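Standup notes
- HV: blocked on the assembly model, inputs below
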Amino acid sequence: MSTVAPPLLDIESLRITSPARVLVEDCTLSVASGEVVGLIGESGSGKSLSLRAVVGLLDARLTQSGRISVDGKNLDALDKAARRRVRSHSMGVVFQTPRAHLNPLRSIGDFMTEALTCVAGVSASEAEVRAESLLEEVGITDPRRRMRQHPGDLSGGLLQRVMIASALAMEPQLLLADEMTTALDVTVQEEVMAVLLDLQRERGLGILFVTHDLQLARAVCDRIAVMSAGRIVETIPAARLDNAVEPYTRALVASSTLSRQPAATDSEAASEPILEVRGLRREFMVRKARGWGREPFVAVDGVDLTLGAGRALAVVGQSGSGKTTTARIICGLERADAGTVTVQGEDWSQPARSVRERRHRAAMAQMVFQDPYQSLDPRQSVESCLAEAVRLQEPGSADAVRERVRELVRSVALDESVLDRTPRSLSGGQRQRVAIARALAARPKLLVLDEAVSALDVTVRAEILDVLEEIRHDAGVALLMITHDLDVAERLCSHVVVMRAGRVIESGPVAEVFSAPAESYTRTLLASIPRPGWVPRRRG
Amino acid sequence: MLRRVLAQLGGLLSTLVIASAVIFGALVLTPGDPVSAIIGGVQPTPELIAQVRADHHLDAPVWERYLQWVGGILSGDLGQSMVYKTSISALLAPRIAVTATLVAYAATIVALVGIGSGILASRGGPWDQAVLVSTTVGLAMPTFVVAILLVWVFARLLGWFPVLGVGDGGWDTLRHLTLPAVSLAIIYIAYVSRITRGSLVAQQTREHVETARVRGIPSARIFRAHVLRNASPQILAVSGTTFASMFATAAIAEQAFGLGGVGALFTEAASRKDIPVVQVIALLMVSIFVAANALVDIIAALIDPRSDRTHA
Amino acid sequence: MPTALTRARSAPGRTFASAVALATASVLSACSGSTPSQEPPAAGGRDAGFDVVNSLAAGRTPVESVTWALAEGEPSSLDPALGYSYVTPNLCENLLLLNEDFSVSEHIAQRAEWSTDTTFVIELRDDVTFWDGSPVTAADVVYSLSRNLQPSSNWYSPFFFVTDIAQTGDLEVTLTFSQHSSQFREVLSGGAGAVMQKAYGESVGDAVGTAETGLMCTGPFMVEKGGWTPGTSITTRANPAYWNGTVLAQEITYVFVPDSTSLTSALLSGEVDGAFGVPTSAAAQFTESDAGQFVVGDSTGFISIMGTSPQSPAAIAAVRRALGLAIDRAQFLETILHGYGTEMKTLVPPFIWSGSPVRDIYDAGYASLPDIEHDVERARELIAESGADLSEPMVMAVPAGNTEAMQTALIVQAAGEAIGLTIEIDEKQPADYGALYGDPALRDTVDLMLSVDYIAVPAFVAYTRLNFMPTDRGGYFNWTGYSNEAVIAGLDEAATATDATAAAKAYVAAQDAYVADLPVVPLAATYQTTFLAEGLTGVVTSKASVSSPWALHLGGRE
């Protein structure tokens, strides 16, 4: 890390303001050649905004000041054309959602060669050759065929590799990555990270790695800048993260390493099953890959699981493994083709037929979704939303309803001041708590949480997990956690079910399954989780 | 692709079969004895009523008359007009030519001005304001009001364009059809312009367009290859519906400018209860609508690989 | 109000008025070789500040082509037995000619008279030829007249008593009647007397006068195959071998302009050369324009209100008379007709008999009728005395899409309200409006009908009988069950008297009786309006143009 040459990227006193407030203040950061610098922070902390300032994608309504130098050239001092030249030649950018960042109507080949032909002036045939070799470099086999395909034909992991390859098309030394693996399954994330780090080593790239995942950043970065509320609070070597002095950094580290709670240990004691699922099966008709018509796709294939009263069971697996469909069948949102669902001795295998039956089931089991925003009426205040839910199950005097609403709000550790607000004005964590409070209004015995904490920042996630644990422990509500996040499963649940391609491949107490997985898939899943000392590897 | 076209054709045919049954049924069940409408003011003697019923096969069961009607259409016999006492095909042929020319002219204007001004407006700034104001006015002006204004200014005051008829072909026809086409087009120009602007603006803020900007792609190319191209299926879909509905609304322009087109014949036949003519034109309108939409779908599929993807 | 008229009559089977009407045009006594002269201005016109002119001086020079706008829109047929349009009279001539003053004179028939009380003999000229050069024969006339025996003919009614039509000589046709019909001769000056070639008629069957089949007649203009482009225009060419003079206009193209705004623009901009029935609302623009002349001619057009069923309050005489008293005619003429109309005291406009040899008797009879009064007080009293059940509003059927008719309806509505009659306006599409004539059940759904109409030939006795005779005696328009012995007796005498004077006196007596009962409430008689481009002249500008070849002398002034 000698600094004879100017750093690839040098941000000095960057300040970004909207007409209403200051979004980023005094952001100073540099990335040297061959160095991976992490920029971490919670959503809204200003990390992505800073990156957008570097690449020139700030909204026109925002103003920025300070200095951004790339390869020693101050961008502000350059004219528009030169600035574009520097940006397009000296840096590559990889964004969070590759599917949105590729034009769905144009082929991968178009995407790969566009910058080469339009910006670098390379001939079409040469651009194609270079695109192919770039794709090969990021581990895409059969690049010729891929180039003829469209983004819709490729998986998220492949698309992110395409993005990386295209970012390197102009041979930049600097790569900017904005939450580039956040939307990916954990095993895919590992592969993409492996590709990225290989390239970094081979080409000696400097990388600015923006992420909210502290564990990932810690595993892949040399240095880490921690951002909070628009300011960089600390920049420290990744290795010394555990010894950080800044309280914010320490809090961040603490909440991202979820420790198992003692509550989960009562798993040994026997408990009446509240939920029993046997041989559950669900097929969907999907369009055939070839020829006319549709063919069945088995989403859930003979799933068995049991959840004891007052216990917590995790269903883990990658996207498409059938865990959400299972949860939806349990809650009566989807019908099963075969198998039984028994909740406290009652047969729930088919969706409720009458309003009464639906209400009866609702009093027993409630579901909380990943995105509470979609399940809350945006015009309703929190109070009226909760009051409505309370009245539905236990009609009572206005005072009684009022009291119960306040009790609910307290039970999810929210301040009563949120009662007057609308979902729009709440933060993601607050919204999710409101959704949980609403689910609790029915005093259910079973709460089904479908990726309910996946979209939340680590600190918020930790808080909500605490709330859930309390609800389970104090009110005896059984929890069925649908999650792809093994940490969450470990933190909250006594038992775990691992699903893959619609089947349960492994199940048992969390401690046993996670420490000594019987299935290789489970092992892969566990190995993909970023942790200290983790080195991403390419697999099969 | 071929499969898609075939599927479209299948859908088109079944829509037409259903539409034909609905059109025929609805008009047969329409209240009022067709006989009194047919003979109108002539003295309704029993002999005359019997003759009319026999002439128009009014005593046969509905399904039999429907099959006869469909069979006739399939063999090229569209039936006879009750009012004009002549074959509907002879009645329609010259009118279709007039309406098709008018609609094609108006559609060209809509495509050029509507999409053009939409593109201009999507760039923002004063142009956006200007287009916004003029399309608001355009949307608020019914075709017949536009027609009266155009006639007043361009025919009466300036004398640039004629007010009546289709002219003698070629340039003369274009000159004659200019005012009708413009008055027919105005409201659609405004509509298409707004849709174009809206979908372009929506595309401009899409992430993939940002990617292209970051990669330094020249803005003209970004606009062409990413913004316009991606907005085109939507613009196309709207244009297709617009094109089809112009056939229906052409009646107003046709009447205002004394053009004997299909639309004018349709309203006239409806008001005179010339049921066979109404049936055939209704079916024609449905066919045009369905065909235009099918065509748009096929073109959209050519543009957008997603709508014809087989999963890898 | 011709615009209104013509639109009202675009119904598939025009109103009976015209059908029954019988007329003969003889514009410019073409047969006598004289050129048309300008009529002295009529009295009504002078008062109103304009001259009434029934024909323009004959053209002197040929013109290449003329574009004529049809304000009534595209005709549904050129068949003289069916459609009315201003196209057919120039193509198909009738046995007798209806002159511009509504007098009837010999034409293709050089003689057409009753030989006995029930025998009518027609003698044909020997020099009349069809467009293809073939001579008109008695067989052609038998064929042509016999078409009126079909119930679908608009002229079925005047032929009701005809028992036989026979060729009785090379150029002679004899009609036998079951009873005398006093104004049958006048009927032959209308479409009922149209002469069409038998060979042509038999080759096309029922499809006479369509865009596909054309016609084969004797008139000064011919329509050729492809001349009628449906929806666009009808092009007719001068008949080079016309038997009755030289045709000056080489080509007349009729275009269809039912929209009155467009019509006005097209006339003023010179895009079309002329039109009948131009809107009176634009009279000032027409008068000031340099593009041509605005001509006001006599007409048999009128506006009136009829009761539609025996249950209608209008079946009670006091209610009808009250309505008549309630409507301010002066205001009506000014606001609706813009001054281009006159009061009308009886069922038909007096112009209808102006060509009659005994017109003096009719004129004197008309003059003796009581004047139109406007007396709201008296009207209220009449309503109170009538004993009519007015708990439900009265519904008045009005032809849709006709501005003048609608405005008229509003005036009637307001007048009714002033005397305690609630009138609802029911706008009816042409087909539904026309169907009212044939369907009693449909008429039961309304109480009143606003009638905007004209009579094509001077056969007003038959028209009057249709309105006021009992239904079982041919009173097909007598929907309220009106019955007055004096009227029946007078109309019977008028219809069957072989002596014109006796018939006229009987009609006048009947008229005195029915005007007292006011079975139909007349609102106004209208004028025929014409606009003709500068430099052109020679058209018939009275309503006779619906039955006579009005463009025969159309040509240049210089």
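- HV (later): unblocked. Confidence is low (pLDDT under 50) at residues 1-46 of chain C. Residues 118 and 390 of chain C are 48 Å apart (CA to CA).
- Next: hand off to the docking folks.
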